[in-house]
TrEMBL record:
Keywords per UniProt: Cytoplasm, Nucleus, Ribosome biogenesis
One Gene Ontology term of the molecular function aspect: RNA binding
Pfam (any one): Ribosomal_L10
Bias type Basic and acidic residues, positions: 14-23
Self-association and partners: Associates with the pre-60S ribosomal particle.
Name used for this protein in its record: Ribosome assembly factor mrt4
Organism: Choiromyces venosus 120613-1
UniProt keyword annotation of Ligase present: no
Any Gene Ontology CC annotation: cytoplasm
Length: 236
């Protein structure tokens, strides 16, 4: 007797679109909608990304659209060749979509945008693997809260309760009469050498901000000329 064939139950989750694909389609659509609404598309990169500072940029450009996402999706939205580009010559902008980059789509004059980013920078604390632009050394003797960054008469000794913490981060400290003490100077970091997690933490404890959040426009396309302008070439 032939065996009966039972109907297979297929989970709806298998037929639904994957969240990642939905997000990509949403990003693709929003980029093209923004191109319809505005005149200029910038590609920009960011040094020392910090969401707090990027939020300030978004606020300052609340009449524009700023996108971060998969570079392949952003390139697809612009077009990667003359055959599929969304606007004439817009595909020429796609080659700049490599690395940690985003899109700013705006109706503001290009000169205004470039001037804004040229003057916009924010100091912040460096993270692991960042390359510090300075060598920072804490002098021997009583350890002060800024590690010698300011004159002693304008500083205060480090709280004794932090001695265990800084010693755990590699500083050979000890307590002397209730004060955090170094028998010899201690180099926290050296210029040009990547920071490890302990060094990054020490710099933050001493209030030393060596990272700079900067937005660097690399190129832009404008509907006025249908041409792509490379920003570095303008500055030469």
């Amino acid at each position: 007797m032939p065996r009966s064939k039972r109907s297979k139950v297929v989970s709806l989750t298998k037929t639904d679109k994957k969240p990642g694909r939905e997000n990509n389609e949403r990003l693709y659509g929003k980029i093209r909608e923004s191109i319809d609404e505005h005149q200029t598309v910038f590609v920009f990169s960011v040094d020392n990304m910090r969401n707090t500072h990027l939020k300030e940029v978004r606020t300052d450009f609340n009449d524009s659209r700023l996108f971060f996402g998969k570079t392949k999706v952003m390139a697809k939205a612009l077009g990667t060749s003359a055959a599929d580009e969304y606007r004439p010559n817009l595909s020429s902008l796609s080659k700049y979509l490599t690395g940690n980059v985003g899109l700013l789509i705006t109706s503001r004059p290009a000169e205004e945008v470039l001037s804004y980013f040229e003057s916009f920078s924010k100091q912040d604390y460096a993270r692991m693997n960042a390359v510090p632009p300075i060598t920072f050394t804490v002098p021997a003797g009583i350890v002060y809260s800024t590690g010698g960054n300011v004159a002693q008469e304008e500083d205060v000794p480090m709280a004794h309760s932090l001695e265990t913490a800084v010693r755990g981060l590699g500083m050979p400290t000890r307590l002397v009469n209730g004060k955090v003490w170094l028998d010899q100077e201690f180099v926290v970091c050296r210029e040009g050498k990547k920071l490890d997690p302990k060094q990054a933490t020490l710099l933050k404890m001493f209030g030393v901000a060596t990272a700079e959040f900067v937005v660097r426009p690399s190129a832009y396309w404008t509907s006025a000329t249908m041409e792509v302008t490379e920003v570095d070439a303008m500055e030469e």
